[in-house]
Amino acid sequence: MEWETVIGLEIHAQLSTKSKIFSSASTLFGQAPNSQACAVDLGLPGVLPVLNVEAVNKAIKFGLAVGAHINQRNIFDRKNYFYPDLPKGYQISQMDIPIVGEGEIEITVDGEVKIVGITRAHLEEDAGKSVHDMFNEYTAVDLNRAGTPLLEIVSEPDMRSAKEAVTYAKKIHSLLQYIGICDGNMQEGSFRCDANVSIRPIGQEELGTRAELKNINSFKFLERAINLEVERQQDILEEGGSVAQETRLYDAVKHETRSMRSKEEANDYRYFPDPDLLPVEISNELMASIKASLPELPVEKKARFIAQLGLNEYDADVLTSQKSLADYFEATLEDNEKNAKLCANWVMGELSALLNKNQLEIDQSLVSPQALSLLVTRIGDDTISGKIAKDVFKAMWEGEGSADEIIKSKGLKQMTDTGEIEAIVDDTIANNTAQVEQFKSGNEKILGFFVGQAMKATQGKANPKLLNELLRKKLS
Amino acid sequence: MSIHTKTIAQLAQGLKNKEFSSVEITQHYLDRINKSDLNAFITVTDELAMQQAQASDDKIASGNGGILTGIPYAHKDIFCTQGVKTSVGSKMLDNFISPYDATVSHHLNQADLVMLGKSNMDEFAMGSSNENSFYGDVKNPWNKNKIPGGSSGGSAAAVAGGLSCFATGTDTGGSIRQPASLCGITGLKPTYGRVSRYGMIAYASSLDQAGPMTKTAEDAAIVLNAMAGFDEKDSTSAQQDVPDYTANLNDSIKDLTIGLPKEFFSEGLDDAVATEVMNAVKEFEAMGATVKEISLPNSAYAIPTYYIVAPCECSSNLSRLDGVRYGYRCDDPKDLEDLYLRSRSEGFGAEVKRRIMIGAYALSAGYYDAYYLKAQKTRHLISEDFKKAFADVDVIMGPVSPTTAFDLGSVKDSVSMYLADIYTLSANLAGLPGMSIPAGFSNKLPVGLQLIGNYWSESKLLNIAHQFQKQTDWHAKIPEEG
């Protein structure tokens, strides 16, 4: 049977506020255990939560960026369950009326544009961390993370492959950084994904029973975990079994998913409105001021790159896929917009290759956008050829100086003096009479040989266009 | 007139005139507490009290004292007090020394008050008789075989029994007004949001409100001045200016319109209590007030509504008491579930467990709409009844409790006990301010008159109560000792 995969994602994005969502304790990562947990985070008797408005502003920002409906009156609820890293015995979250309602986002997979629906996004507090392997026989609890603001972004089950799911997750990840509400650091848990995965026979409208995959902390694992789960479900269904609705934990080391809890074991969270917090009221003025503060969104930037810079769809998509990449590219355009296409090629070509080879991120590049811009300018004004530029770029990467310094010190400036080139062309023709005969007898391809010889004689510095013209003229 | 029968206003005058020092009056109260068998205190903070008294005397000597400087009081053991055990009447927090001060505690410290100790209470403020305390029953100073009322029973007994000049209380369903009524003192539950709940251990967050328990309305006004105010640590506290609650005590009440809800005078109300309440109402008429019968048609739903809302909230509020970070932990838990199960089973008393169970049940999937949501709707209807009533009347009067104090151990089933709150619950559900003032006696036991005012009308209530206390001396009666 042919199966169709159906995926929905729940993304937990940590909002980059200085203090926690309901207390004034710091959200700084990597501090000594329990050093950033105040009375409120510890859930001492008598303490009360006070909402951090920065978290609200950031959630609104996200909502506006995905064209979502903002619930201008939204409610915090308590989600009740017992766990040692949940100090109050309930998590403050949003159930019936989340801050962000329905929205959507566009993704491009294999050249095809697809819209993924966003069901909702709500604010909640993170739990602490249970550490099981530090003390013999004991579990340690670190409450530094307790109360960190999270935005849980829930998608519609609109994705049909692991690849689409990853593309969507990357798109959200990128958008959050564009609008400056999440640092996106997946190692530190600032961006976490749960995937709801089910399969159904192609053509069937009704959804299959889903499994929720948890504990996925990289895009690579997201793709692997989904593919693994799809295989598992197919095996079950093809053997006549049925998929159980359950939560499964992905183990990246063993590359397997295993059951965490079944539907029957699922908690009854006994949600109800938190009586310690008032409904959140968002004024039209606040909405307007946040809207005005939104930076250019990836989709807008992409359109501008195409319309204003003449980039093609693919290049514009790649260059806007990450905020840091787009920032770098735009920095190379300063006073250099006429070479935009060339800049794009260099950023996506030579630069990306070197970054990949050295496993560096774009913001760790050893060549600054300004330095690259100068190099591209020198190609554009015929100071050097594109081929020579690659050597100059390598030298720049090695820290040998600016493009101009390297061109000068290595004497790489392109030969553009017709007389000078003409002399070399004459020499080349005089020294290769046999090949001249071949050319004259109709072997046009031999022209490349002359170009090569002449280039060699100029150490590659001859302007290729001039050289070609002169050779052709002299040989005929 | 001895020290322990004096009001705050009288003690403040005496301190100012150097008739006695704060150290002397504090020692006087500590001696009385020491000899008392009322069991009104869970913790007596004698050393701290003497330090505070000495500091107060210094302050008075330097001319920097305020009206409350050096006045000894009892603080309900529901308010967190830094460095002092805060047990909330429960075995669960018997070992809990609070690392921080509640906002109310902070305000009272700022006012240079002298804390004599932490007063006894029903466990987690759940109860109407103070028989649910881990620290034992509190006795009614008027008759030691009787209950003092609850949950602020220790506070009421301390004030009535001359063990403190005044006390703090909290009122979720009547826990200030009912014990004030049964012990013959003045108690005020302010409008919800008037006093910060930060550091006041939560029972039912949307209903809990702290207030003063005093000998007179004037004293209640003085204490409320110190307790009230917006607190940025409590999102439900109101950003509303705090007037001087003593400013209008002497306003005339001759144009007052009093509403008597017929539902408060129906079946179940003790005849003698009804008589005393009506005598008090007549006293107001004699002072020029007009009396009108009104109706609060949904008040019959107050008990079922309250006993859904409060348990739902408490089932969640008390989840943090899990034996993990502080409080009682069972011996040798064999795993996490055992730790939770036994710590909570052993640490909580029967009534607390009962309400947690009711609340968890009412909130569970499939029951939420039928119970919690329904209760929210009736709660709204109850508030609407009051809104309509206050279009016609300035204040609502009636009994606080259907009977006078009953015998310790005499009410055995929960439902009968819950009925004791029948007249007080509505004000909490609507968030309105309410008072109990002494209005007579039946069988040598005090009877209280309840006043319910519109939102933020504390000044008016205190004015009405003060005018009544100028005409009567019920508030000045003290129990015989011996």
Molecular structure report:
The complex is a heterodimer of chains A (476) and B (482). Chain A is of the alpha+beta class and 476 residues long. In chain A, strand 7 and strand 8 (138-142) form a beta hairpin. In chain A, helix 6 crosses helix 7, helix 13 (418-431) packs across helix 16 (464-475) and helix 15 packs across helix 16 (464-475). Chain A contains 16 helices and 15 strands. Chain A has three domains: 10-200 and 266-289, no CATH class; 296-409, no CATH class; 418-475, Arc Repressor Mutant, subunit A (Orthogonal Bundle), CATH 1.10.10.410. Chain A is elongated and about 95 Å long. Chain A has an eight-stranded mixed sheet with strand order 5-6-9-1-10-11-12-13. Chain A has a three-stranded antiparallel sheet with strand order 4-3-14, with no helix packed on it. In chain A, strands 2-15 form a two-stranded antiparallel ribbon. Chain B is an alpha/beta fold and 482 residues long. Chain B has one domain (3-256, 393-476): Amidase signature (AS) domain (Amidase signature (AS) enzymes, Alpha-Beta Complex). Chain B is built from 15 helices and eleven strands. Chain B has an eleven-stranded mixed sheet, sandwiched between helices. The longest helix of chain B is centred in the C-terminal third of the chain and has 21 residues, at 369-389. Chain B is globular. Chain B starts with 7 loop residues before the first helix and ends in an 11-residue tail after the last helix. The mean pLDDT of chain B is 97.
**CATH C-level class of chain B:** Alpha Beta
Give the % helix of chain A: 25-40%
| Structural class based on helices, strands and sheet pairing of chain B | alpha/beta
> Which structural category fits the helices and strands of chain A?
alpha+beta
Number of domains of chain B: 1
C-alpha termini separation of chain A: 68 Å
Tell me the number of helical segments of chain A per DSSP (H or I, 4 or more residues long).
16
Largest sheet: number of strands, sense, barrel closure of chain A = 8 strands, mixed
Average pLDDT number of chain A: 92
- And the CATH topology of chain B? Amidase signature (AS) enzymes
Overall CATH architecture of chain B: Alpha-Beta Complex
Number of domains of chain A: 3
Any low-confidence stretches of chain B, pLDDT <50, length ≥5?
none
End-to-end Cα distance of chain B? 18 Å
Largest interface, and how many residues on either side?
Answer: A-B, 28 and 45 residues
Shape of chain B: globular
- The proportion of strand residues of chain B reads 5-15%
Helices of chain B, by number, come to 15
